[in-house]
Records
---
Amino acid sequence: MKTTDTPPPPAGTVEARPVVKKLDTPSGKDRSGGVLNVFSHGVLVIWSVLVVLPLLWAVMTSFKDDKSILTTPWALPDRLHFENWSRAWTQAHMSDYFLNTILVVAGSLIGTLLLGSMAAYVLARFEFPGNRFIYFLFVGGMSFPVILALVPLFYVMNNLGLLNTIHGLILVYIAYSLPFTVFFLTSFFKTLPTSVAEAAIIDGASHTRTFFQVMLPMAKPGLISVGIFNFLGQWNQYLLPTVLNTDPDKKVLTQGLVQLASSQGYKGDWSGLFAGLVMAMLPVLGAYIIFQRQVVAGLTAGALK
Amino acid sequence: MQHGKYRFIVGFLVVPLAMYTIFVIWPFIQSIYYSFTDWTGLSPDFKMVGFGNYSRLLDDDTFWKSLQHSVLLALLLPVVVLGLALFFSFMLNVGGRRRKGAAIAGVQGSGFYKIVYFFPQVLSIAIVALLFQFAYNPNSGLINSALDGVGLGSVQPEWLGDPDLALWCVMAVLVWSQVGFFVVLFSAGMASIPKDFYEAALLDGASRVTTFFRITLPLLWDTVQSGWVYMGILALGAESFAVVQIITVGPGGPDGSTSVLTLLVYQKAFRDGQAGYATTIGVALLIVTLIFSAVVMRLGRRERLEF
């Protein structure tokens, strides 16, 4: 269980010497003009289309009736079949899946941020025997394949009576989010100035009080970054609920949809399925467009462990 | 004071550490132990079989096939994804026509491209997989009807149903969902490269291709290397599991043509009642992952010395 990948230095750390001494083209003029620009724009546009088209196609299809989905996949809907959406929301249990997902993610996110920042704070700011060991124990968890632990975990959960429960899922999400959260927040707490916390201690505040009233508010930017990272990871989680949560009533969005696709597919309710798919896509896409900067900052700060 | 300090440390660490130990560390250690047993997972009884599972692994064709697919994904996916992402992000940040005053600039509308390219990254891989399952549908899917529409009606591949194509379809989905993230990541890296370097290159009349290979890539190498490891682990891990399990028939594809190690662990443990053997495959997966990371780190280091 060793950490295999060392944390990267900040992107583009510049310690290299300038390497521009012997570049091979002496002509000096703007050689990279016209043709290449048309070409590069073309390629960029093509990729945009490749990204957007399937998404738009799904939205469009969710408003069509079953027959035209199967016969004319590219045609616009004859009219907007909103009933697909209401059918998916109620009969196909999308509302339940949403509710379950919101419950699980809300619980896990709060738990992850609270427990993660507590552990990270102690590991970053206090010297005690075993500090390094505990830190590497946490961080080491980032690099091993989750599926390996899942087989025994299934039976651990079973024995604890946590299988197929919302709170069991929350506990597991928190545990598997801790490695990265602790890693990220430990380095973040190290960058915060010590003087404010020391002043609070001298004024007679307890360590606990100092943490909650002084350090945690100061750590807000870090908490937001790691919070966004965890939110998306937990909202989009598929493997953990698939294995640990097989009760149809407790399904989260991703597994609910997959389950719908395999069962509804036979019933032929393609339009309802597309409506459900779009329903699951739109909230995150919408949130991303609104909070675009924060999401990108959070994910890029986060994902490269 | 000192006493209070230790009480505080223990108080803050005990819950996170306990949860992490129970749900992550302990199962992980157990799985290595179970890989030496004949545990079915269904009954509490099992006995030690030594290296029995491991020797069974060597004779298991499904295992070798899955291993081959996993390794192929881990080797090819980073090349394609990082290659595309480097090209796009270079275009977006450096490749633009020079405007007055700025030494370097991205193409016009680069902000818009960056937002759009990132879309797939915020979607769950399960949702992405479902979407592509529909797109690949041979009769009514997006892709074949598009082929039909442009007059290629005779070319109607079965996509996921074709053993020769299915794995490539899986790979395409993973590429689609990952490129945008690296475009944004590399863009951030490129933004931190000092402008002087580009100005000097410009004065020397370097072309864009030269600029890329002599300046951008070497200075971005650390990020590329971490991206390489990240992408490889992703290809070996949960993402490829989700795509294969959701979209390919079987699941595991026609004739096992898309089976990957993660899927095999899942199937052996939760479908076939061979939990002990499943953990053995899991250990093999762990070894492959460790070797992959070690090799990339090693090769990357040598590469860096060149300039």
---
Amino acid sequence: MSVEEKSLPPKLPKSYRLESKPHKFCPGCGHGSVLRAIAESIDELGIQDKVVYGCDIGCSLLSWDFFNVDSVQAHHGRTTPVITGIKRANPEVIGIAYMGDGGGYAIGSQHLVNAANRNEKITVFLVNNANYGMTGGQMAPTTLPSQKTETSPYGRDVELTGQPFLGPEMVAAITSEGAYVARGTVSNYIQMKKYVKKALENQMAGKGFSFVEILAGCPTNWRTDAKSTWSYIENDMANYFKVGEYKVPAKEE
Amino acid sequence: MAAKPIQGEKRVFMTGNEVIAWAALAAQVDVMYGYPITPQNEIMHYWTRLAPKHDKTFLQTEDELSAGFTTVGGVLAGRKCFTATAGPGNTLMQEPFSMAEMMRIPVVAVIQQRGGPSTATVIYSQQEVTLTTFGGNGEGHRIVYSPSNHQELFDYTIKSFNTAWKYRFPTFLLGDGYQAKMREPLVMYDPEERGIELVKPEVTLGNGMEKGKYNHVRNTFNTEEELYEIVTSMEEEYQRVAPEIIEHQEYNCEGELDVLVIAHGVVSRAAQAAINLFSAEGKAVGHFRPITLRPFPTNELRATAQRAKKILIVESAVGQLGKLVKEALFGLPIDADYLYRPGVGITSDEIVEKVNSIRK
Ligand SMILES: Cc1ncc(C[n+]2csc(CCOP(=O)(O)OP(=O)(O)O)c2C)c(N)n1
Ligand code: SF4
């Protein structure tokens, strides 16, 4: 192999929109990995022309033109109903709602709860970075006990603010047969990608609500370097938020 | 294709909410998304009874935010969708309506005004004029029809879908609880049989490459200047099409007038009854009614108001129509008076009395 060939960048997914690359996330941000896993899954499943991708407010909005797929950028917390509306009006589409923990567990939580409870045939990917990234690092429903943020400067006091929100656990509890629920982490890309792909396959099979939370870093607001970002995800976060599959539809006989 | 829901002309006697459900069917609407609130509930009740028989669908969402945003989604998917709400539901829906406005998504919403902000007084007011015409955190680039009787509820429901899809501004049918709940005769018809062409919906999202390109719909912008450009061109577009959209009605407005009574919606009917009494006595009292509250028939009102010694604004709110009228007449030396009755109905007798008290 020539030197040029060896130094070529890794092959970019076909469903990437090249005009919007390199992407606009901060270096080391978790969003990039998750979006890559989504893109690779879209390619592998051959659904590029069927996907309608919706992103939320928060850093997820930076992905409004990330893919070469039909996309809509919605308001904070409202991506779930927008994708629900699209999917209900045209069941042929593969609807993806992409959001942060603020969008999914705080402002838009009633939409998440009710879409899950109705077993809407859509796929929700939620990036849990334990804070509000875009607005400058405030406390999120997922901020860890004693974690410092701009609005919990002395560390999150769970007596006052409650415990970190356990999304997949809740969604698994309220969805019915056919739902797919998992929690992955950017620190285990292969596994996370597997969950992402399964969540899309589940929608393609028309089985039920598909939900994957992904633990991700926000080095800018965490004020962490590469090493401690990784360690925070792998140790502190994964310790509280257990990675794994929470609900898998029964295999058809 | 399923048979047309209405064939030929049909004389019926129904409530306003039932009329709207039928009109939506006649307009070939596909989906309704909604959340219960009085006085619009029966639109959903009738729609859910009619829908399955005509291959139409419905979703009762968890709240009005969701109803508004699912409607936005349905429209993006290329279906004729609508929602209906009132009062605090209208407040919540301003967020999805703002998004629709900015993204030029032709959502249609029926607003059946109720007293606000309150609970229990759930039936009537004209207090949602400001919210419906200018609500949201943008510039209020919307279209608002204010019908006054059941025939108009039918006609303008059909028209709302055509206007929305033709111009791609969110379009509102602003009724009220009296119109929603009372029964009245009207003629229902299939619009196409009457030569009314139904504007076809277009798919924005969901058929990928078939459109030849992927669409990325957004209201996130990198700079204030970018937003400025978009809003400015939207304003220009809105002003350009406004004359095609604007509608009003004049009742006994010929020649010089002692008093010009300005009212909209159901209150116009009281105004017209009052005018009938004056004209029987040979008195020069006319009535001007904006049918579109936004865009507002500014030029038309200015022309007529200048022939009047006095104008009288009558509404079941404290000057919400009044604000629109005053803005329209800005700069003209006009003597104005008002009859503001927030949250309650207005009779023709009250209007007659008021006109007599100000007629010189
Ligand atoms: C109705 C509304 N309230 C508040 C905001 C401001 N806002 C923008 S992004 C954001 C937080 C985003 O955090 P999260 O959803 O966790 O996503 P992240 O940026 O961390 O990826 C907030 C509060 C908004 N856009 N809309
Ligand atoms: S602020 Fe945080 S979440 Fe947002 S792009 Fe930067 S690192 Fe990512």
